[in-house]
Amino acid sequence: MAASTERSGGSDRTGGPLRRPAALLLVPVLVLVSLPAASALVEGLYCGTEVCYDVLGVTREAAKADIARAYRQLARRYHPDRFRPGEPGMEAETPESAQRKFLLIATAYETLKDEDTRRDYDYMLDHPEEYYQHYYAYYRRQLTPKVDVRVVILVTICAISIFQYYSWHSSYNEAINYLVTVPKYRIQATEIARQQGLLNRTKEKGKNRRSKEEIREQEEEKPNLSDLLLCQIVLCPYYVTTYVAWSVSWFYRFTVRRDHYGDQEKLYLIRRNMRMSQSQFDSLDENTRETFLKKQLWIKEKYEIYRQEQEEEMKVKMATDPRMKRYRRWMKNEGPGRLTFIDD
Known about the structure:
Layout: H1 2-8, H2 20-34, H3 52-56, H4 64-78, H5 95-113, H6 115-126, H7 131-143, H8 149-181, H9 183-195, H10 212-219, H11 229-234, H12 236-256, H13 263-274, H14 278-282, H15 286-294, H16 300-320, H17 322-333
Domain J: 51-125
Keywords: Chaperone, Coiled coil, Membrane, Signal, Transmembrane, Transmembrane helix
Family: Belongs to the DNAJC25 family.
């Protein structure tokens, strides 16, 4: 009687529950029963509850040509424009059912003709338990724009080139308008043009006479179209070929044959030692270039001596320059960031 009373109280003699382990085991079983059975054929994905291979009447090992051939045969039979009720083998079909069948055939063909989509579909058939992964793969391909990457790259390059062109021209026009309004720069530009003989070219006569438009185009240094990104990419093979040919020629002439440097080669070596761009080096006057040639700065050792001399001269100049003295005094006494109440 005592034993039955203890059991009816829901615990054994050790004090532990009797039926709690059984209840815990029933929870996952009920959860599994309540979940839908995993199926590879999901409504709304690809061919729905139909297998795309069965719709076209081919096997999973069928080649692309076999799939296309099966699609053409079925499309001729079920196309709405070519469907004829009562044909042999089509007695049970109606125009509405034939149209639905044709749409299903077209969907199956669109699924199997593309290698990537067919791979995803085969993976769905082999792994039906990955329910959400199939939805993600399907809608990712459906929503991705079907545009060739090469077209996107070409359009992007063209857009960047157009932006460069208008940006450079607007900056150039703003700089020209600013220089024209400032008398100091206008006088300097007139003096440089007079020294280079640009102001006297309008007096040319005969066949050598040029129009004002030609003179303006030659004198203005506008941005060059060859500097645009699109032109640079198009001309890249030419630049690479030219550079390789020049490097081979340089190596053969001055390393193998040991020829003497000409003036152009010497100026190139000087520019490379100074680490200047071609435009920066071209902005130097002829006297400065002649000075570089006389000092033989294409030789590395002589250029190092010249560079050290220039640095020493700059240090002396900065030490004796009154403006630099005032600047150092200001940096010592006030300097940037110091709090002051003096009116500017």
